[in-house]
From TrEMBL:
Keywords: Hydrolase. GO terms for biological process: carbohydrate metabolic process. The keyword Hydrolase applies. It comes from Mariniphaga anaerophila. One of its GO terms (molecular function) is beta-glucosidase activity. Residues 204-272 form the Fibronectin type III-like domain. Belongs to the glycosyl hydrolase 3 family. SMART domains: Fn3_like. This is Glycosyl hydrolase.
Length: 283
């Protein structure tokens, strides 16, 4: 703490040892082990910029630490060149470009949570969510309705699948479909303009998601169907194109792979929770 008080900024390396994750090494509580959070609380009191680098083998529940940090870099368990790589990112020689390959939950009680889950019989929207601390006293037991949500965590994860920030910002616009109807012999081109509206040249990973609204068996609310990595200079804009064919709509119905007619949603965006939306029909 004394060293932190005399520093310009604080780099706090948090996380868990390799032995704590992996096959046959499960944890019931997935927060930072030990007294790391308490130390972060004390470091926050110094008023110095606090950068947390998390080295862990799983998505940890770091909501509390996230609120205290000025920046968080999730490094996972990197290899022998982790030191130079992290130094390049922290000091701005390179910009982070990675996207999360998993969904980060707010706590272990939110598990399982993933972008391609099946819809529930009583899905909740953001307007339905009421936090446990905001429930009026003496409310009747059934007064909140019957929507699927956590009263403490809500309905959103800490970070959605595909999420990732960089040292710049990107703007998505002009989602266009070449056709509104797809059949077994045709192709739909889905495109969007992506512009770097920040001051740092770096990469962005653009993601394509679709949803089959109705199927002979229940279908996921969203499925990743493609992604493309592009590099943009400050102010530069590029048009990203994806192709959708009947084969991209196939699913296993318990007996065989099929493609069923119906209505579909399509998104192009930076992660599973955000994006430009359009619709098309498969006949």
């Amino acid at each position: 703490l004394t060293a932190a008080q005399s520093s310009d900024a604080i780099l706090f390396f948090a996380g868990e040892e390799a032995i704590l994750s992996g096959e046959a090494n499960s944890r019931g509580i997935i927060d930072l082990p030990g007294i790391q959070t308490e130390l972060i609380q004390e470091l926050k009191k110094t008023g110095k910029p606090l950068i947390i680098i998390v080295m862990a083998g799983r998505p940890l529940a770091i909501q509390q630490e996230l609120e205290m940090a000025d920046a968080v870099l999730y490094a996972w368990h990197p290899g022998t060149m982790a030191g130079p790589a992290l130094a390049d990112l922290i000091f701005g020689d390179c910009s982070p470009t990675g996207k999360l390959p998993v969904t980060f939950v707010k706590g272990s009680g939110q598990i399982p949570l993933y972008h391609y889950h099946k819809n529930t019989g009583r899905p909740a929207s953001k307007s339905d969510v009421i936090h446990i601390d905001d429930i009026p006293r003496n409310s009747k037991q059934l007064s909140l309705g019957f929507k699927s949500m956590h009263l403490d965590y809500g309905i959103e994860p800490l970070f959605p699948f595909g999420f990732g920030l960089s040292y710049t910002k990107f703007q998505y616009a002009n989602l266009t479909l070449s056709d509104k109807v797809l059949d077994l012999n045709s192709t739909i081109s889905v495109s969007a303009d992506v512009q770097n509206i920040g001051n740092f040249e770096t990469d962005e990973i653009i993601q394509l998601y679709i949803r089959d609204r109705v199927g002979s068996i229940t279908r996921p609310v969203k499925e990743l169907k493609g992604f493309e990595k592009i590099r943009l200079k400050p102010g530069e804009m590029k048009t990203v194109n994806f192709k959708i064919q009947a084969v991209d709509l196939k699913f296993f119905n318990g007996e065989k792979y099929v493609t069923e007619p119906g209505e579909f949603d399509v998104w192009i965006g930076p992660n599973a929770a955000e994006g430009l939306h359009a619709e098309f029909t498969f006949e």
